[in-house]
Amino acid sequence: MTEAHTVDPRSGLEFIELSHEWGHGIPVWPGDVDVRIERTAHHARFGVMSQRITANMHNGTHLNAPLHLIQRGADIAALPIDLFFRNGVVLDIPKGRWELVTEADLAAQADKVKAGDIVLIRTGWHTRHAESQEWFGLAPGMSKGAAEWLIGRKVSVVGMDTAAIDHPLATSLGLHRGGPQMKRLPGLYQSETGRDPRTDFPEWNPAHRALLAAGIPTIEGVGGDVAKVAGKRVTIHALPWRWGSGDACGIRLMAILDRTGAARIEQGGMEK
Question: What residue ranges do the domains of the chain occupy?
């Protein structure tokens, strides 16, 4: 693996990795098949390496276009390219098991969020990224009110360091859309909290659907060294593929810090 934090010796720009490593054996959404990588040519026989990949696009650090949840929504290639290289903020909102990022959490940091920002939310859950029931089933999520707050602030892209934007019980991991994909999850939630998941999470993907319906692409699986830029304004690189009819794809997510102010992309764009 390459270094996750690199400093350009001429400009002083710092490049911080915000992606999880991708490849064979990475966590995949329960119910999906594994990422399959095959060598179609290899050095011992052919003197060249070539590989074939079979995978769902919703794994690792990936970006979702509105088309993912909104019928006739914009696909990946239809999204303006400037959405994915611009100023933004990494909000530090620590959350534990089954907690929600709420409108109140965001309002408490409203001064850090500007119109047009890429907003990434670091709950701390990126440290649990693994092929595990904890990563998928016990994670925090975003409330519908928080999504509506971000829509009202006219942000450009929203990402979280969790496997999904919504709470696990508001997805097919719980009692939605043919679930539960994690069979024990609804009962575990009810036994540990004393609450009915049907009552607490009556809507399917309400936060994610609200964001995509508003034309705001989402990033799931923010990772890498996101803790190094938590609470900071940075420039963010999140470019997806130019994929017509694409609903989602993996991205190389990076934060760029300009501590000296000598290489700013726009005036006042990257506060320290």
Answer: 5-36+52-164+206-257, 167-204
